[in-house]
TrEMBL record:
UniProt record, GO biological process: phosphorelay signal transduction system
Domain Response regulatory intervals: 6-123
TM annotation in the entry: none
Gene3D superfamilies tied to this protein: 3.30.70.270, 3.40.50.2300, EAL domain
Protein name (Swiss-Prot/TrEMBL): Diguanylate cyclase (GGDEF)-like protein
Amino acid sequence: MDTHVRLLFIDAEQVEYLLIGSLLSEIFHTAYEITWLPELDKAVPEILSDNYDVILMNYQWGASSAKDIIQAARHQGAKAPIVVMTDEIEADVDREALSVGAADYLIKGKIDAQLLERTLRYAIERKGNESRLAELAHYDPLTGVSNRTLFKDRLNHAVDLARRGDYTFTLMYLDLDGFKPVNDCYGHDVGDQLIQQAAHRLLECVRNSDTVARVGGDEFILLLDDMRASTDMAHLAQKVIESLATPFDIGGMEITVGCSLGIAPYRTGADTEDVQRQADMAMYRAKQASGNQYCFYAEIMDQDARRQITIEKELRRGLGRNEIAIYYQPRLDTVTGEICALEALVRWRHPARGLLAPSEFLDVAESSGLVVEMGYQMLAQVCRDSHALADAGLADTQLCLNLSHRQLRDDKLVDALIAQLDAAGIRGSRLEFELSESSLMKDVDTVRDAMGLLSVTGASFALDDFGSAMSPLSAIQQLPFARLKIDAQLVAGVAQDRQKHALVMAVVQLAHSLKLSVVAEGVETSDQLRRLRELGCDEVQGYWLCPPKPLDEILVHLQAAQAQLNA
């Protein structure tokens, strides 16, 4: 034991303070530095301050008890052991004190210098041993901050306190933006050093009473004690983002990452699962907004989550019951009026809600991965429908399907395509796959690899929604696209908006210089069609020409649509 011990004495009675001071003065081999605190409501910050080696406190304060103080100190990571003093007549109080986290107890009126010194010394020694074990059980070995186990323990305690009285807290979930590329490029040693430095910066951003926990590879949680004002939360969130955005110096290399952060203030009635889920949803929303941002939890996120869960469950069942339907929309040549292609568009015949458009379910299909199975079902149906088109004199009409980013990454895609082509007895050149500009921006390498494999079958490709993002020209030149499809938002203003007119003209000129055909989507008026013809657009599609329809209706409508175009 150290020869100099800092002791915090918590008791309202000065006479008790003087008595303890007198007893400790009899101990010659150890110098005790005593600080007297007569106010219980100021105890927790002092206990957590790291200014003391041991705490000695009166357990009973009239009608109130030190029980909550001991529990709060333990759950917030107090390092100093707490010894309590109880009255002899208070049966079982000593056991209660020990059960909530006290290191030992002394009975008033039976304390002498030798007993007091031995009790304090043993408490400090036991706390040291416990701390070493706790480091292994409750702290992340890489960063030294709390691990998931200790975080859950402290969160449970915070929820209990919030439910019982005038106490609140806030959770912040965050993960590092761009950490995986750093790990992949520089190796795990550099990644580990980055995580260590990030944890250190987080500790510098918060108070001693707050908890920083590492709960995953690059995921951290901040448990912020008694933070009430949303402005304070926003200020701290911005402080964390700016801190982590500052370049890290690792082995002489300057590495920059960011973070996405979700904020969930405690809400009355919430349990530990609720508040964690809310913080996680807020973080996900922040990451969707391009990262390096923070987002507060809002009730609408719960509504969205429940909607997604319900739709995913029903869609999974619907895929098994053949509820997915295909509607076709023709693409027409602006000069001849001939049908160039039919685009296959997905619909869902929901048993309770009727026919649903893609906007009602496609985002859930993509996020859940069900879009892959849906895509296979659509591919099989399109190959079967090719025979009906042949019977109607459209044997050479191209059939177009959209491919999502998840489908492009599926290893079974090419084999499934070959199998369906063989089963239907049609050539791969009958099919054109449309890839969105956003998919291209996500991962050019994945898109390139998938297009290379699919092109072996003879299928062609179109870049969909061109103008909705900022796809690099170099990527378009490197990939085997046959045509560009101009985004409907640009087409919508081509007849009135000079800027959009100029943009469409530039896209047409760019595509033609690259030997690509141009398709205008979303044609809604005759004025738009006239302008698109003038600008040299090769093909058009839209509701004014022909809305998406089931195959049997589209065959009837095609002749009328061609006549309208030629009028």
